[in-house]
Design goal:
Rossmann fold, single chain, 40% helix, Ubiquitin-like (UB roll), de novo design (two linked rop proteins)
Amino acid sequence: MSFPVPVRSLGPARLSADPPAGGPEPTGEQIVESAAAAGVQGRGGAGFPLAVKLRAVRSGFVIANGEEGEPASVKDRYLLRERSSLVIRGLELAARAVDAERAFLYLSDPVAAARMGAAAPAGVEIVQVPPAYVAGEETAAVRAVGGGPALPSAKPPRPWQSGLGGRPTLVSNVETLAQLATAVHLGPEAYRAVGTGDSPGTFLATVSGAAHAPTLYEVPYGMPFGELVAHHLGSAAGVTGVIAGGFAGGLLPASALALPMTHADFSRAGSTLGCGAFVLLAGDCPIGVAAEMARFFDEENARQCGSCVKGSAGVAAVLARLGTGAATGEDVERLERWGRGLAGRGNCATPDAVSVLVGSLFRHHRELVRAHVGARCPRCAPHDFRIRLEENP
């Protein structure tokens, strides 16, 4: 069965081939050195240097995180379903690099679980959990693998400091591990032959929205975002904005088309490349889009921290009222205050994502927010940003 979303490469197709068999096996230290020299960065959202994590974990555990809770992303499911040997190779290399006692593969997709179960070697334990937005957070992965709920825990400590059984634990996204396998195979110089100095290599980007079917692309870092959009739509002319890098990146206006796709450039724009999920907007009202995103956060938060529960619910309620013309000026002031005060609250990153979302509204669409007070907006239609794949293997 072919993957249900089209997959295309706009540069070197590094993640579309299985790793080579045979050849000398690198030592643990050689693996760490390759990751450092190649500049392999995390592909789960933060873009953190992999080598730093590898050096911090010794004689503990490794968890390959394939729990893709981001609603507009399919990259992890693609790798687990179609490039299982590449993920397994990366997991084996990471386990050797940190001299891991045990290795785990953590996911929710039933199709991926069946395929990885058939491909995984002895010694790799597969842990399947119900799908949830917060289940992909690294401490949620540690709790679930340890037999608890797939919910985030308070930090610090981070898993690399104290994870499973209080031992150092490397939690690494499955694309990060696939990139590690690619970097070790190619060598640092060849790996860095594409991308930029600060963001080397390629990454997987899921593009959806604008009334077009979603597509998964492998693209080199540094490509202008507008070039990716033009490949997807045929022209970027009708794009009025984007949900960038996943829901945690907030809303960017059409000027984002000029941004090079690097972690630094999207960070300077107040957003993130995140997991590489981009939802294109073409005439959609940013207020209506933000209302649906806030509703998602309110439904999907971990329900563990009062600040998160109350904050996400309050933001969702005000944005919903803005869309129907029922909001007041006081609501708008309260919304902006909540947006500033939610960052850094709670166990998971949901309050941070809500803060980025609200901040992006006021940074790019302040006058539009004000215009919605007491006036019903005909463009604030309901949206569904989830990419749903078939459920059966």
